[in-house]
UniProtKB/TrEMBL annotation:
It comes from the Bacteria. Residues 160-231 form the Potassium channel domain. This is Voltage-gated potassium channel. Keywords: Ion channel, Ion transport, Membrane, Transmembrane, Transmembrane helix, Transport. It is found in: Membrane.
């Protein structure tokens, strides 16, 4: 009987340690305490360093140390994903979120770089998954700069699109009578296609190349227009109307433009 009691106590102690770990991680990822904010800033810096590696990967791929860096990044991403999973209150639900699915796919490309060689350009989607995290936006809101969130998100979406398309063009059309002989050529073509400049010195061959250029132009122009709207239109504040629920209003609005209800928008300048 004493042996059974000892095993039960050990099980309870292990369970208590696991619960404490999850509680600690939840605080670090979601709290606004000074220690938690420092932890979140460190995680963000590590993520930005990983993204820098993804951007430079096509150039570094021929280096001897590339695989070591690749597996080191995979280890960091695995640890970070595990920590985020433990910090969540519902792990199965967390695993079904699109940013998490994308991160798991990116981890797979890192663990098997030769198998997923042609899909390596999708690793830059890590920048998009980071932009879906509150860790990025919490400092802005803390400094009352939340009005710039949509503009920054539009810039991130544009950058992600540029580098994803550049990687795809480089992977699919390099050395195929297109004029693309390096990663910079693919980046150059992507930007000229997005801006509809069309110098004509680099042209993707065949019907597939033409369809690719059409898609780049349509989506690229849409992202540029969206970014221009956010930059040049009057700034809006987020304040839900108590009556109709409209969330965006002019900073000096007194009445809701949808229902006319009187608003009491806090003045962040005070």
């Amino acid at each position: 009987m004493s042996h059974v009691k000892i095993e039960a106590e050990l099980d309870r102690s292990k369970l208590g340690w696991f619960k404490r770990l999850r509680r600690r991680l939840r605080i670090l990822y979601h709290s606004q305490a000074p220690a938690a904010l420092r932890f979140q800033a460190t995680v963000l810096l590590v993520d930005l360093a990983i993204i820098a590696f993804f951007v430079a990967a096509p150039v570094l791929r021929g280096q001897e140390a590339f695989l070591w860096i690749d597996y080191s990044v995979a280890a960091l991403l695995f640890i970070e994903l595990g920590a985020r999973a433990l910090a969540s209150t519902d792990i199965p639900r967390w695993l079904r979120q699109l940013p998490v699915i994308v991160d798991i796919f990116i981890l797979a490309t890192l663990l098997a770089p030769t198998v997923f060689y042609n899909l390596g350009f999708l690793r830059i989607l890590r920048l998009w998954t980071i932009s879906q995290s509150s860790i990025v936006w919490r400092p802005l809101h803390k400094r009352k700069l939340g009005a710039y969130q949509e503009t920054i998100q539009a810039v991130i979406n544009l950058l992600v699109f540029i580098f994803v398309v550049t990687g795809f063009v480089y992977t699919a059309f390099v050395n195929q009578d297109s004029g693309i002989v390096g990663y910079v050529d693919a980046l150059y073509f992507t930007v000229t296609a997005m801006t509809t400049t069309g110098f004509g010195d680099i042209v993707l061959p065949g019907t597939f190349g033409k369809l690719t250029a059409i898609v780049i132009m349509i989506i690229g122009i849409s992202l540029f227009v969206r970014l221009a709207q956010l930059i040049f239109r009057p700034a809006k504040v987020h304040f839900p109307c108590p009556q109709c629920g409209l969330t965006k209003h002019d900073p000096d609005a007194v009445h809701c433009k949808a229902c006319g209800h009187i608003l009491n928008i806090p003045d962040e300048g005070r």
